[in-house]
Design brief:
The complex is a heterodimer. By secondary structure, chain A is mainly alpha-helical. Chain A is 73% helix and 0% strand. The longest helix of chain A has 34 residues. In chain B, a hairpin with a 4-residue loop joins strand 1 and strand 2. Classes of the chains: A mainly alpha, B mainly alpha. Chains A and B meet through helix 1, helix 3, helix 4, helix 5 and helix 6 of A and helix 1, helix 2, helix 4, helix 5 and helix 6 of B.
Chain lengths: 274, 306
């Protein structure tokens, strides 16, 4: 057993701060989780009038203002496509940035600019461009493009962080042993980068799935889930919204657990073979 | 041995064993970054140029007409509303920045330097990150039943006998706007700072302690300077998110305040594209200058790419 220094007083201060922060973070969320089980006659605030799962059932019914199931389907589809494109493009670009090339600085700052640009303006620019060119807006044209301007810079920055920790000697060794560039990528580089790539995928999916400001002016006729939720907020005051919040949290929780277990399995099997 | 090869190789990618040398190294890089460059040019740079051009256009109720007018800018810059909105957005941005910086730095420091077990650190970080995976819209309205007149917070205070009647300033006020922003964006500050702190070599801290530095001196002269990349990156993210905010102000201020972007979206909905474009250009310039100022503090590119 190694010797452990006694904790400084700042440890207890900061631990207290962490506790308060978690309370702050989860307090309002817990309120909506509880309120989503509001009785059929209850409203959007306390007290609870009985207990029911009516509001969860309501999610599945297409309403007059918002069609949650249909928009959920569109969101899943769009986010999946955005995720695949983001992963592929970010890996390629991350590998490309390992060498110096003319225009590297310009491209880097373009990505940063795309990240920090107020989101609605990106959507506005794309929407205006489509209007001026007379093109119809759509889920897989303007909206997909608008979301990529958001997920790609995040993907690129994540790849930078992943690649910074990557030891190039493995690639050199593979090349020395006669691996072709393709074999090197397929059997050495990509497997080693896999945990980071999973991170890019999860990040891209959640950013896209929750995207509102870039999508709202580029979506065309059929809304994604966040846009339907936004329409619902402005007009509806039933606990359905809270029920949606509870379901989305549960889904993200499950998703994160699956990805974490996958990453941990990967690392363990790697340690065992190493 | 291994280090020799890594130093030598990036300069010359050619190895004797390779049989198909065709492209120069930077051509390969161009192919690899090509898709990214295409997306960013077509879907970001060109649309930005589009509204820059449109900001000089003429318009009426029917349509917009290519022209070169400065009227849109003249109206924008002489309107007191513009200045009021910018001032109020900047005030929110500064308050939220200060709070998220305080929270983000201290919490990241706690996770990286005070927590000894990797599992606990991971678990605590995930606890902080999980709400980030819930829709921002839902996280915003989650505050309504909490802060409202009959909300949880007021009820608790009343039950404890700390107040006699419900507080009205909790919801639909500047306070609720700030609370919501802090709730939404603290992780954006905490993540980059934690990343910077985790990269600090522990030996440096040991060395400063051995050299007789107090814990405060170590913080001030070792940890703070080494975490400035994270602080700059987090600050940029928080500032741009608040300045680009569309619905938090609209929803949580009870209509008392507007944000630059929500004012702009009103113009867009009225199809007044040229004046909307002019205020978009103004906002881009404003955010651009702000970010450029923060990037002067630290060379983000060098720190991230290499």
């Amino acid at each position: 057993m190694e010797y452990r220094e006694p904790r400084p007083y700042t440890f207890y201060l900061l631990a207290g701060l962490m506790g308060l922060f978690l309370l702050f973070l989860y307090g309002p969320m817990l309120v909506i989780y509880v309120l989503s089980f509001q009785g059929p006659n209850g409203g959007v605030t306390f007290p609870m009038v009985g207990f029911s799962t009516k509001w969860f059932g309501d999610i599945l019914k297409p309403g007059q203002i918002a069609n949650i199931p249909a928009s959920f389907g569109r969101s899943m589809l769009l986010s999946s496509v955005v995720t695949i494109l983001t992963v592929v493009i970010s890996i390629a670009a991350g590998l490309g940035f390992r060498r110096r090339f003319p225009g590297a600085a310009l491209l880097f700052y373009l990505a940063i600019a795309s990240l920090v640009m107020p989101s609605l303006l990106v959507g506005f620019g794309i929407g205006l461009g489509f209007t001026l060119l007379g093109l119809p807006q759509g889920l897989f044209t303007s909206a997909l493009g608008a979301q990529l301007t958001w997920t790609l810079p995040f993907g690129l920055l994540t790849m930078f962080a992943v690649i910074a920790r990557f030891n190039r000697s493995y690639e050199e060794a593979a090349a020395d042993l006669g691996a072709s560039p393709w074999q090197r990528l397929r059997y050495v580089t990509l497997p080693l980068l896999l945990p980071g790539i999973l991170g890019v995928a999860v990040g891209a999916f959640t950013l896209s799935y929750d995207e509102y400001a870039r999508t709202t002016l580029t979506i065309g006729s059929y809304n994604t889930l966040p846009l339907e939720l936004y329409a619902l907020i402005s007009s509806d005051s039933t606990p359905t919204l809270f029920a949606i919040g509870t379901v989305t949290t549960a889904v993200s929780f499950i998703l994160i657990t699956i990805v974490l277990v996958a990453i941990m399995r990967l690392q363990r099997s790697r340690r065992m073979t190493a | 041995m291994a280090s020799d090869t890594t130093v030598e190789l990036p300069a010359t990618s050619w190895r004797p064993g390779w049989t198909r040398p065709r492209l120069s190294p930077w051509m390969v890089s161009w192919l690899q970054v090509g898709p990214l460059a295409t997306v960013l040019i077509v879907l970001f740079a060109l649309p930005t140029l589009t509204f820059f051009a449109a900001s000089f256009f003429d318009y009426d109720r029917v349509g917009i007409y290519p022209d070169f007018l400065l009227d849109n800018y003249r109206e924008l810059l002489t309107s007191p509303t513009t200045w009021r909105i910018y001032l109020s957005s900047m005030r929110f941005a500064l308050i939220v920045w200060a709070i998220t910086l305080f929270l983000g730095f201290n919490l990241a420091h706690f996770l990286v330097f005070h927590i000894r077990s990797n599992t606990t650190r991971m678990a605590l970080f995930l606890l902080c990150a999980i709400p980030f995976w819930t829709s921002g819209i839902i996280r915003t309205i989650a505050w309504i039943p909490f802060l409202g007149r009959n909300g949880v917070f007021n009820t608790v205070l009343l039950d404890l006998g700390l107040i006699n009647r419900p507080l009205d300033i909790l919801l639909f006020s500047d306070l609720s706007v700030v609370i919501t922003y802090v709730h939404l964006y603290t992780l954006l500050m905490m993540g980059p700072i934690a990343n910077s702190l985790a990269k600090i070599d522990r030996a440096l801290i040991e060395a400063s302690r051995d050299a007789g530095a107090t814990r405060w001196q170590i913080m001030r002269h070792v940890i703070l300077p080494l975490s400035r990349t994270g602080i700059a990156l987090g600050s940029i993210l928080v500032f741009t998110q608040v300045l680009g905010d569309y619905f938090v102000v609209k929803r949580m201020s009870g209509g008392q305040s507007a944000s630059v972007v929500s004012a702009l979206s009103t113009e867009i909905q009225a199809m007044q594209y040229p004046p909307a474009s002019a205020s978009a250009v103004l906002l881009v310039l404003f955010v651009g200058l702000l970010v450029a100022g923060m990037m002067r503090v630290v060379d983000i590119r060098r720190e991230l790419v290499s």
